[in-house]
Structure formats: C-alpha cells, structure tokens
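Query form — protein Glycosyltransferase family 2 protein

QUESTION: What is the three-dimensional structure of this chain?
INPUT:
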Amino acid sequence: MSSCNLTIVVPVYNEQENISVFIEAIKVELASIYQHLDILFVNDGSTDNTVNMISAEIVVNDNISLIDLARNFGKEAAMTAGLKHARGDAVVIMDVDLQDPPAIILEFFRLWRTGEYDTVYGVRVDRSADTVMKRCTAGGFYKLFNMLSHRTKLPENTGDFRLINRKVIDALNQMPERNRFMKGMFAWTAFRAIGVPFERPERNLGCTKFNYWSLWNFALDGILSFTSWPLRVWSYIGFGISFFAFLYASHILIDTLFLGIKVPGYASIMSVILFLGGVQLISLGVIGEYIGRIFTEIKQRPIYLIDKVTGQYQRQDTPNE
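ANSWER: The structure tokens for Glycosyltransferase family 2 protein are given below.
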C-alpha cells in the first residue's frame, strides 16, 4: 500500500481555532492508518489566520498540503478543487470542526478495502447538537428533494462526510457545471454505496459559517440543479386555472341567459386579477431562477481560481483553475 493511499480533503473558511486540534485528532484517532494518508486543506478565501496556521503545520508535517483559493468561492467549489488535485486512491471529505468524527474514517476505510463499495458515507443518527429549526428544515429538504427528483435520490441525514474511490472521483471531475450541489452529484454517480451511522457531536471550536439564508439558497441550488419539476408544474397549474375559469365562464353565461344580465362585483374581479397576477409573477420567478443558472453556465467561467499551492502538492494547470 502506498504512503498516499488515502487523501483527506478539508475545505476551510476562517477556521484558525480548529486547525491544530483537527490535525492532532487525525494523528491520534487514525494512528493505525496515518502512514497511508495525506491531508489536503483547501482554503476558501479565509480572512483570519487560517492560512498561516496551516503553513506552520506543513513545516512539521510532510503529509499536509494547502490549496489556497484566490477568494471565497464557496464550499462546493473548494471541495471541487480538492477532488481535482487529490492524489490518493480514495478521498475522504470532511469538515475541520470535528463534527465529522475522525474515528469513523477507520470504518469507511475498512469497508472500502473490501472492494465491495465505491462510496462509504456517514449517516447522522443523532442530530441533537443541531437546533430544532435546523433539524426540521434539513429533514424537510431531503424529503422534498427525493419527491421532486425521480432519478437522483439523496440518502437522508447525510452530508459531505464520506469516502469515495478513484472511480467516483474521476466521474465527479468530469462534471463541468458551475452551480454545484455536491451531495446530489455524489448521489448521481450511482456507484456502489453504503452508509455508516454515527452520532454528530457539537462543533469543537468557532462558529458555523452557514446561516438560514445561505442554507435556503443552498437548498434552492440543490433542487433546481437536479429536477425540472418546478418548471413543469406551472403547466399543470395553468391547465387547472383554465379549467376553473371555463367553469366560471360557463356559470356566468348560463346565469345571464336565464336570469338576465347582472353587474359583476368589484371585489370578485379584483380578487381574480390579483390571484392571477401573483401566479404569473411566481411562475416568472421560477423561470428566472433557471435562466439565471443557464446564464452562469454559458459564461464558462472557472469554478475556482488558485492563488498558491504549498506542501507536497504542486500546482496543476487545468481548465478549472
């Protein structure tokens, strides 16, 4: 087994408090396979001392490397950069805050070494460390996504914490889309996968960089990237409204023929106008979301830009940089 058999890809953004603690946890909890792995940090435009902390660790640890992105491109882009550069036969993607327990990687590694699985992902069986609102919205998102997406199904209570082999990595590296929803992309590959349950602990240090607005946009990206249902549903809504409009017009016609002409009420007219106007604006908004994503894709801008690479990894000039 080579010394670089497993690469741990760790996207970081303003995580200076967690760098040293994370590396020490990896050394202690993965001691049995430590000689077979390397750690690849991807700095996503941190503005604190994260880069200096990682650089100091690189000096004393020859199996640690850093990809420093030119600015903040988002976690999905940071993971993409890590997967593009990772050299291991398999890659583990995890967060630096230790809410993804390093010890679980041993089970990931064992299952992968059996040769029966291409992906081994973590399943959160206890999310008590999360707020009630986050647990409810996360559960609702998985159910909604799987209901709308017919071909790609997300295992519930899974995140980015997983091990993927070289076959899956190569497949992901072929996907050029700019609006990236990595959980969906992992599921889309549809290679042999198995889940490993684990209890998700509280964040070690620092605070999360996600808020509910960013999570809402993230969920929106995920749904719109893997289903055209929000576009298709407006055809059914249109047919439904037309059907009821036909019934109402028939009622007015019959009423007029048999009871004479009556002056329509102002309130009912305004209600219908406002209702239809709202429906039209909502449908235009959905169409606009898809057009905005098309606009982003056709510009073909790089998913990320790299400022520098330090450690054992050297810069690789690729179209995505």
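ADDITIONAL NOTE: The radius of gyration is 25 Å.
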